[in-house]
Amino acid sequence: MNKKALAILMRARMRPNHLTNFALSPISNELNQILSNSHGNRSSENGEHHAMEHGKEKLNHQRSFEVVRESMHSVISMNKTEVGDSVLNEFLEGYCSLSFENRRKLLLTLAKEYDLNRAQVRELIKQYLGLQPPGSEAQSGGVEDEGFLSTFYRIERNLRHSLKPVYETLFERLNTHPEGLKFLTIIRADILSILTEGNIASLRALDSYLKEKLTTWLSPAALELHQITWDDPASLLEKIVFYEAVHPISNLIDLKRRLGVGRRCFGYFHSAIPREPLIFIEVALLKNTAETIQEVLWDNPPIAESEATCALFYSISSTQPGLAGINLGKFLIKRVITLVKIDMPHISVFATLSPIPGFMQWLLSKLASQLKLAKAEDISRSSADRSRLTFYENILEPEEERALIDSSGDLASGKSGMEIMLNLLTPTTHEWSNSDKLLSALKLPLMRLCARYLLQEKKRGKALDSVANFHLQNGAMVQRINWMADQSEKGLKQSAGIMVNYVYRPENIEEYAQSYFSKGHIHSSYDVKRYIQLALENESKGSL
Q: Which of 99, 317, 354, 416 does the annotation list as catalytic?
């Protein structure tokens, strides 16, 4: 595929995997049912014919499932020396031919019927607990009896073996196949898709085990870092366009700019999945840390690379849904920092310009819940009553509330500042972003609440925002939040246009990552902390 074909592909907005994905989705099955129903309206004779055809098709599907199931059993049960590429190929091809529902059925069979033997585990534990610990008084003279210890070693070895599920054999044998690693990511993507429908314990255990295996097989030592340039094959560049998840590549000129002077793109590759990055990161070389995505994507012409002092990571995208939850990005960022420091010693700042995907969802939910509490207690006007309600919180400062009430005009109405804010931010038209007066009134409360969301709102002791959690666990700090940094539809919907700079200080990465992992501590600059401190100071003054 040449670059001209790539340009045509981009202009046509084609997605090469759409037909494959659609064919495997439950929606396609529903569509086929609708089509068969519509055909059935033609005549009773045609209806009988279609019924017969439908019966044959259902029988063929059942036979196909049984064939693939038997093929899977053969891969698991055959001796290691008997399992060649032909046996593995049969299972790979058979699995890929299954409908989504049959894949679901097969994976549930794998999870339940090829799990570990719990009766054996219980028996071994019973035997182990029945032994007298080494060095106990029951042993004569306190001298270690090698024969006695060998019993421990034997049971411990058998116990380790019995705690491995039978489906481990399938995973390990598939991994020996040239296409096996890619295939295992497809299987895990299917498992994750099924788990969105409901939490099935056996399937969750299967997923956990496969995730552990993939994490081991995709260790940093097994991955190759490659700088992606305009000179790479068009088939690889097509994948960069297809998988870019943060800031879509709009056309061929945009792609060329992202791979040109003042820009870098690095990807992690594995020998078992050639010509396709597992994850890639886009970097802009700038004089200063960018405050808006517009200056990164539309900076034309870029500065001379010798003048750059900042390497800005503005997009990181994973290409394999089946690798979700496996933090390849952590190693990628560290490797890129090391490489850039070697190639360009004049670069001293390593930062990101990141989206805040969960901010608006959290804020709108917070506003709605607080207004519901206020309405239930009829306290929208009574500060005295407010203070007695345990769960009520006016998340706006008095001056912020007054500014919103004065600026809302005809765009939104409400009895309080919170109600006005909710009514302004809920519509998808984002009309507030076109009003200078409303922008001025919303800036302080939104920036302050965004700082609170990033630094204080947590889930299981870690940052609630997924992107924040990713960078913080990798050793970054929250450096700055930027007003109206992404004015696209997506940016306004996710975070009211606000973006955040995370900074990676090479000398502090491990320390920051460890304190976040062990204590949930989030390192941030004084400027970001100031938003929180001002709110706390105002709260303490109000209570005096």
A: 354
Contact 381, 406 (CB under 8 A): no
From the candidates 177, 247, 270, 471, give the one annotated as an active-site residue: 471
Distance in angstroms (rounded) separating the CA atoms of residues 18 and 14: 8
Residue 315's CB is within 10 A of a number of other CB atoms, namely 24
SS3 476: coil
Q: What is the SS3 assignment for 27?
A: helix
415 DSSP 8-state letter = S
Q: Is-catalytic flag, 97?
A: no
Per-residue model confidence as pLDDT tens digits over 249-300? 988 889 999 999 999 999 999 999 988 999 999 999 999 999 999 999 976 6
Q: What is the dihedral of CA 383, 386, 392, 394, to 10 degrees?
A: 0
299 contacts: CB under 8 Å, gap ≥ 6: 262, 284, 286
pLDDT at 454: 98
- Domain positions in the chain: 57-115+165-218, 232-349, 358-378+391-542
Q: Average per-residue pLDDT in the chain? A: 85
Asked if residue 481 lies in contact with residue 449, where contact means CB atoms within 8 angstroms, the answer is no
- Report the pLDDT value the prediction gives residue 62, as an integer from 0 to 100: 59
Dist CA 127 CA 119 (whole Å):
12
The CATH H-level (homologous superfamily) assignment of domain 232-349 is: Malonyl-CoA decarboxylase, catalytic domain (3.40.630.150)
Q: In the numeric block, which tokens belong to residue 128?
A: 């182990």
Instruction: Extract the tokens encoding 4.
Output: 């001209």
310: nearest Cα among 280, 333, 340: 340
Question: Does residue 50 sit in helix, strand or coil?
Answer: helix
- What SS3 state is found at 289? coil
Determine the pLDDT at residue 114: 96
Q: How many of the other CB atoms lie within 10 Å of CB of 312?
A: 22
CATH number of the domain located at residue range(s) 358-378+391-542 in this protein? 3.40.630.150
DSSP-derived letter for residue 482 is E
Q: Give 157's contacts (C-beta < 8 A, 6+ positions apart).
A: none
Whether 396 has a pLDDT exceeding 60, the answer reads yes
Q: Is 39 a catalytic residue?
A: no
Predicted pLDDT of residue 31: 31
| Predicted structure pTM score | 0.81
Domain boundaries 57-115+165-218, corresponding CATH code: 1.20.140.90
Here the tokens at position 154 are 């034997």
Round to whole Å and give the CA distance between 200 and 107: 11
Please tell me the distance from the alpha carbon of residue 143 to that of residue 139, in angstroms, as a whole number.
7
468 contacts: CB under 8 Å, gap ≥ 6 = 354, 356, 454, 478, 500, 502
Fold match between domain 232-349 and domain 358-378+391-542: yes
Greatest Cα pair distance in the chain: 94
Residue 462 has pLDDT above 60, yes or no: yes
Helix, strand, coil percent values for the chain (each to nearest 5)? 60, 10, 30
What angle (nearest 5°) sits at the alpha carbon of residue 105, between those of residues 103 and 108?
A: 105
